[in-house]
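Task: fold both queries, return tokens.
Query 1:
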Amino acid sequence: MDSALGNASVLMSQARNQDAAQVLAPLAHINCDARASLLLAAAFAGQGDELKATAVLERAHSVWPSNNSIAASLARVYLASGQKDQAVKALAHFRPTAHTPEQELEMAVVVYLAANQLLSAERVAEEDLKFYPSVHSLLLVANALQMQGRYPEVNRLLGAKRGAYPDSPEFFVTLAESEFDASIYPASREDLQHAIALNPNMYQAHYLLGNVLSRANDVDGALTEYRLAINLAPNQPRTYYQMALVLRSKQDDAGEQQALEQALAADIHYAPAHCELGRILLEAHRPADAVDHLLLAIQYNPRFESAYFQLVKAYTALGEKDKAEQMAERLQAVRKENRPAQNSKSLSGSTADESAGK
């Protein structure tokens, strides 16, 4: 078996994936060694035949459900095809040990984060940090905590490691993001400026610095950072959207609308841009046109509170009372979903949080 696997590995290193598959197929069929199935799946993938690769991994996973390597490989395939739930199911028996390769631990964390299984992501990330301590594994733990809104914990975790990673721009950007979310804006600004000094070409650093400067009412500074971020990553719709909000504060209506249109050109499914365009159209006394954008906003993000609130106003302006009441009821339900620990607020006398769902 070892000799055959070695021969197959050599063939694959020579890009002779079809020959390797011929060697591996009979070995994988007899279910005597999980490594044969892993290599066979890799050989099929090397030929561009993802369907066969997936089928091999699925069969192997049914035979060895507790094999971490097979589980991680199958989860990676599912995640790449957008099947988040299937990817999580593939990891049902994934149990990190000191012998689990780092890339498999990281893949498990990525799958759990993508599927919003945040406690599982945190658990595996902590094991990754224990077995393979590095700035990368540290930031995986931080990301899992950030997505749970546990910003003080992230600030304590990373704050204690400042001296250990003084030359890592990724470290300072991650810390700055948690500082920003915790409203510690001066520290966030300082850490982002340090990250940019280390690497001037980091999109995330310029984007976040734009957000920090916007909160500090430094409108021109924020616009400068957003434009730098756009130059580095022109396909990020959120940058155009945040720039649009800053231009709105400058009462630059034409500039705001152009930025929103650029956001949708980058991603037609970006709900916040549809919602903001809907608000603009409502203010321009064009409620029917506003409805079109607002319905797209809730189609692309069904938990976007502000879009429902704007729809209530749009349908009211159109005289469609039943639809306005329906959207008001849906707004209340979405608020409960978004804030399960809080009592819902009545619609009258309140405004929808425009940051909800962004």
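Query 1 returned. Query 2:
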Amino acid sequence: MDRPASDVAAFILAGGKSTRMGTDKAFVALDGRMLLARALEVARSVTADVHIVGDAAKFATFAPVVQDIFPACGPLGGIHAALRASQRELNVILAVDTPFVSFALLQFLLTRARACSPSDRKAAVTVPRTRDGWQPLCAVYRREFADAAESALRAGRHKIDALFDSLPVQSIAEEELEAAGFSPTLFRNLNTPDDVANARQ
């Protein structure tokens, strides 16, 4: 395995309410391991600079914690807080409830982010796009995205992919992902007890 990169930070988004799960998703076990532990392991495979975005009272024993600047604004609020806290140019954003994301996938996204051509104007986001839509919670963001996120949050707009129309974005299509050996099922997230049960099968 490659050594963790020094130009990258990673942030695990764990601040959701987990309403449909009925308990905090971060602590749900899949095959004997908490979703949070799985997310931390894959994040630490690409960088030693790993933080959790969420409640410090719950997560400070696992990793350094970043708390939302704009509370209760969903994942966009978490991404904004992460990028404002980051000291790195490239930032992996990963939802805590996506246990199938692999080291190889994150490395692929980082390689693409680093290799942005001048025509891409150093894309603010390198983000997969499958037939199910954008995958903004498994993507690489540059710190500049925080400015657009803050403007949107101040205006009461919380939809992440709505910002992709106004920024340089490097979109990685499902066909390209599959050609590189990555199934779109890697982005599958677990929202309910049934999702977890199905994932165990």
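Both queries returned. Flag for query 2: The longest strand covers residues 8-13.
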